[in-house]
Amino acid sequence: MLGLNYSFMMAETIGQKGITGRKLESFRVRALEALEEIKRKRLPGLAFTELPWQDVSPVREAAKKLKELDYFLLLGIGGSALGPKCILEALSPFHNLRADKGPKVFIYENVDPSTLQSIIACLDIKRTGVNVISKSGGTSETMASFMILHEMMEKALGGEARNRFVLTTDPEKGDLRKLAAEGMGSLAIPPGVGGRYSVLSPVGLLMAEVIGVDSRELLAGAKEAHGKCMAGEFWENPAIVAATLFYVMQRDEGRKIDVLIPYADRLKSFSEWFCQLWSESLGKQGRGLTPYPSVGTTDQHSQVQLWMEGPEDKIITFLRVEDYGADFIIPDVFSRYEGMSFLRGQSLAGLIKAEEEATELALAKAGRPNMSITIPGIDAYHLGQLFYFFELVTVLTGHFLDVNPFDQPSVEEGKKLTFGLMGKKGFEDKKREVVQARDKKSQFTA
Ligand code: PA5
Fold it and tell me: Per the CB 3.0–4.6 Å rule, which of 204, 262, 294, 405 could disulfide with 83?
C-alpha cells in the first residue's frame, strides 16, 4: 500500500511554518464527518468509489479485438484522455518502439490539425482501431476528430469501418450512445462517474488491456486503497490526513500552490492527470488550490530554486518509488576526476532516491513544507492505488473548501462562445457577443 510521510509538514520538525499536531487533531472530528458523509454517498458523483468492483469482461472482450489490429487511436480530451495517457506512459513506456507490445498507440487529445496530420501519417488506416471517449457524448473537440476519422475509415474500409470503433460513453445519454444503438461497438461509463474521476472505468481500463496490462490489477490496487482510505480512522488514513494538510495549509498559511513531483519519468503524466483533477474539481467560487506538475530530478534544475527561496505559497508533494524495476551500476571510469569518482560503484536508483531525499530535507531546512507519498513500484496495482487515493483526497479537500468537486460550471461559457463562432444553432447571440468583443480587443495592441 502507498504510504504518506508528512513529517516535514509539521511544526515539530520544520518549525513555525509547519502545522502543529494539536491543530491537526482539532480538525479530526470534522474530517471524519466528511469521510462518513462520503461513505453514506451524500455527495453526488461518488460512483467512482464503486469502480474497483466492476465487471471488466466487456472491456477485455473489446480489447481482444483491438489487439488483432496494428494501431490503436484514442480520441478524447480532459478526463477522457489524461487517465489513459497516464496508464500508457506509466505502464508501457516507449510503447511504440517496442515490437513485442501489441498495437502501436496514439492519443489525439486536442484539435491541433498538425498533430492529427502527424498521427495519421503514422497509421495504416486499414489496420487501425479507434476508441472515441466522451462521457457526455458531445464534446466538440472529440466529435470533430471522430467525424474526420470515421469518414477516412469508411473510405478505406467501407461498411467494415463501423466495426473498428469503440465508443466509450454514458450508458444512456448523448450522441455517441445513439450511434452505439445503431450498431457501433461501445463501452459504458457508469452514470455517476465524471470525466476526471473516470480513469478506473472503461475509459482507462481499455487502454490498459490493449497495451497488455491486466486491468484487474489496477482495480485490485484501488480496492486496497479504498479499504485503507475509507476506514473510519484519522491518523492511520493517508487520504484524510493529506486532504486535511492541503486544506489547513491554504487556509492558515496561504499555501495555495500544490506541486506534485514524482521522481520517475514514467509518472510525469500522472502529475498532469492530477493537475486536471485538482483544478477542475477545486477551483470555483473564488476558492481552490493551484496544482503544478513537475518531475524529479529534472525539475531540481529548473524549479527548486523558486520553491526554496521564492514566495511562501507552495506545498511540495514528492512521489517516491522504492523499486524502479531496473538499475545500472555506475562504472569505474574517469575516476581521476573528483566530480565523477564519487559516483563509481553506485547505482542510478540509489542516486535518484538520494536526490529525492536530499531535496525533501533541503526544503524542510528552509522551512518549506513538503510531504512524500511512497509506492513500492510502478505497476498496475500501485498505479490503481495512486488514482484512487488522489481522487479521494480531491473529494475530501473539496468538501473542506465547501465546493462541489464534481462540476465545472465555468468551462461552459467558453464552450457556448465557441458554439456561436462555429455556427451552432441556438447560439447566434454568442456569436454576436464575440464579434462585438473584437472591437474592444483591438483597442490596445503593440
Ligand atoms: O472532468 C471532466 O468532466 C472534463 O474534463 C471532461 O472529461 C472533458 O471536458 C471531456 O468531456 P467528455 O468526456 O464529456 O467529452
Answer: 204
Per-residue pLDDT, averaged over 371-394, amounts to 98
Mean pLDDT, all residues of the chain: 95
Name the CATH architecture for the domain at 3-40+219-401. 3-Layer(aba) Sandwich (3.40)
314: annotated active-site residue: no
pLDDT in tens, 124-174: 999 999 999 999 998 999 999 999 999 999 999 999 999 999 999 999 999
Domains 3-40+219-401 and 55-189 share a fold: yes
Residue-wise pLDDT tens digits, 80-118:
999 999 999 999 999 999 988 899 999 999 999 999 999
Instruction: Quote the ligand 1 centre to 309 CA distance (angstroms).
Output: 37
Q: Where are the domains of the chain?
A: 3-40+219-401, 55-189, 412-444
Residue 136 beta carbon below 6 angstroms from any ligand 1 atom: yes
Atom 15 in ligand 1: residue holding the nearest Cα? 134
- 280 tagged catalytic: yes
Say if residue 297 is preceded by a cis peptide, omega within 30 of 0.
yes
Cα-Cα-Cα-Cα torsion 44, 240, 135, 268, nearest 10 degrees, comes to: 170
Per 3-state DSSP, the chain is made up of helix, strand and coil in percentages (nearest 5) of 55, 15, 30
Q: Under CATH, which number does the domain 55-189 receive? A: 3.40.50.10490
Only one residue has cell 484501488, namely: 222
The answer to whether the CB of 388 falls within 8 A of the CB of 226 is yes
Distance from C-alpha of 166 to C-alpha of 129, rounded to nearest angstrom: 8
Spacing of C-alpha 163 from chain mean position: 29
Per-residue pLDDT band for 179 (boundaries 50, 70, 90) equals very high
Active-site pick, 182, 236, 301, 338: 301
The pick from 77, 168, 272 for probing ligand 1's pocket by mutation, whose C-beta has the most ligand atoms within 8 angstroms, reads 77
Residues 6+ apart with CB under 8 A from 354: none
d(CA 48, CA 45): 7
Burial 206-229 (b: 16+ CB within 10 A, else e): bbbbbbbbebbbbbebbbbbbebb
Of the residues 141, 280, 356, 360, only one is catalytic, namely: 280
Nearest protein Cα to ligand 1, atom 12 = 134
Best residue for ligand 1 mutational test, from 85, 110, 139 (most atoms within 8 Å of Cβ): 139
